[in-house]
Amino acid sequence: MQQLILYIDPGTGSLLLQLVIGGIVTFGLFFKNSFKKFFSLFKKKDDKI
Amino acid sequence: MFYAQHESSFRDNDSVILKKNNEIIRVIYDSYKEHYEAFERSGFMDELINDHKLISHIDISNEINNFENYKNIYKIIKPKYIPFISYPYEWCFSQLKQAALLTLSIQLSALQKGLTLKDASAYNVQFLDGKPIFIDTTSIEIYEEGKPWVAYKQFCQHFIAPLLLYKYGNPDLIKLLWANIEGLPLDAISKVLPFKTRFNFFVWTHIHYHAKLELKYNSSKSIKSKKIHLSKSRLEAFIQFLKSGIENIELPKSKTEWSDYYDTFSYSKDMFEQKKELVQNYLSICDSNVVLDIGCNDGAFSLIAAQYAKQVVSVDFDYLVIENLFNITQNKNITNITSLILDVSNPSPAIGWANTERLSFYNRTNYDTILALAVIHHLAIGNNVPISNIAKLFASISRYLIIEFVPKSDPQTQKLLVTKKDIFNHYTLEEFKIQFQKYFIINAFEQLKGSDRILFFMTKNETIS
Asked: Cβ distance A6 to B148 under 8 Å?
């Protein structure tokens, strides 16, 4: 990472946390959206019937 | 023309805040030029101002000759003046939550425009016309791809930690902000929150795990040289996670139900109507700019005062009372009441550098009228404050005083004496009159129906200094 020039202390732990949790919630969102899409497919079919 | 540097403006090198009477000026330096231009060009600045999310300003760069003491000036702006400044340790749950959500909604929209917030201090949010507004125009900077949110830690310390203290029943600990101007220490909050919160993914992440990582990496062997790269989409997902988590934090249901609040129901209806009418009459004479309602309780009299004054500051030590009043003012769209949690027997102190960074409660504005209804017994008997001290304080901050004397015989005063030895021989009507007449002239007084209480209307005796 390039040298951060900041006037507040971002906290190394706080930056690392975003890496770890950012990854987890992105995957979480991906699955959530996939589920939604999957179920919405059924819904559309229901509507047509 | 002389502008003094604002005492709280020294942390950020990109701009400086100056003040003169009711004027605030922000001098922006060349170092921020690139960021300001990007902020303005993106249309985001106008968007935030139009949405009342960011304080509006006018450009007064043409007056640069008045600012000769300042070098490398890029721009000079004059933000709209905020009549009453409040601090996060005085906000109720909903005020804090709204301020947190405002900060996050700005950060999320900023990212979409290729910008980011470089800090997330709760002191960057104020309440104007009853709604939260972001006041630090130079907090927005250009986002660099791969960079995590540098203000995340600050956001947790200023917003998430106090919100969770509210949720999990430790609201008094929010006053720890007095001792920690940088925000609440996460390791301490982690220890205070109940064990069950370790199984709540949101709380575990932002408090418990966060505190652990902080401790692990706070030594000199930091990993700054290593690469920390967070893609924009992951950062956005992370901020969204923060936002939805905060949206889901609520006060426990049992706490929000309006129940038997202290003095409210000790009134008979007749007495209440009579008191309302008297207060209305007195307020109409006062012609107040700012009214301070001490011990505002359910805000019935603040709502009346709001019709007669430009601004009402309503304070009570009970956070649920303020929560209720804040919700009422928002629902009724009343814009000139600022409701704050404040214990008059121990009001917010001056904190920060040189004790001038954040002002003490009484140093923030001048009041014209004080409403002190059904409160003197709490101060004199509940807190052992002599009547002479109360009179002296009120005289030092206001011209007019509408005060209710609640005698010792009153059931509410008797309640206070149940667990206390009665050492209050001087708590009498005679003593009350003697002490207050040292500073005030009594214009009118009336006994309240069905009680021994007396409502006084007084004006400060200006011949006494």
From this structure: no
Beta carbons of B237 and A29 less than 8 Å apart: yes
What is d(CA B266, CA B281) in angstroms, rounded to the nearest whole number? Answer: 23
Burial class (CB in 10 A: 0-12, 13-18, 19+), B114: middle
Could you report the per-residue pLDDT of B126-160, keeping only the tens digit for each? 999 999 999 999 999 999 999 999 999 999 999 99
For residue B376, give the nearest of B421, B413, B422 by alpha carbon.
B413
Predicted confidence (pLDDT) per residue in B28-57, tens digit: 999 999 999 999 999 999 999 999 999 999
Interface of B with A (CB under 8 A): 11-13, 118-119, 144, 146-154, 156, 205, 209-210, 212-218, 222-224, 226-230, 233-235, 237-238, 240-241
pLDDT reading at B218 higher than 90 = no
DSSP result, A1-49: -PPP--SS---HHHHHHHHHHHHHHHHHHHHHHHHHHHHHHHHHHHHH-
Closest chain A residue to B202 measured between Cα atoms?
A21
Tell which phi-psi region holds residue B155, choosing left (phi > 0), alpha (psi between -120 and 50) or beta: alpha
Is the Cβ pair B12, A7 closer than 8 Å?
A: yes
Residue B403 and residue B372 in contact, taking contact as beta carbons nearer than 8 Å: yes
Within an 8 Å CB–CB cutoff, is residue A12 touching chain B?
A: yes
Chain A residues touching B147 at Cβ < 8 A: 1, 4
What DSSP letter does each residue of B379-434 carry, written as one string? IIIIS---HHHHHHHHHHH-SEEEEEE--TTSHHHHHHHTTS----TT-SHHHHHH
Using pLDDT thresholds of 50, 70 and 90, give the confidence band for residue A1. very low
Q: Do A4 and B12 touch (CB under 8 A)?
A: no
Q: Closest by alpha carbon to B210, among A8, A20, A26? A: A20
Q: How confident is the model at residue B308 (pLDDT cuts 50, 70, 90)?
A: very high
Asked if the model's pLDDT at residue A32 lies above 90, the reply is: no
Q: Check CB contact under 8 Å for B218 and A13.
A: yes
Residue entry with tokens 């003046």: B81
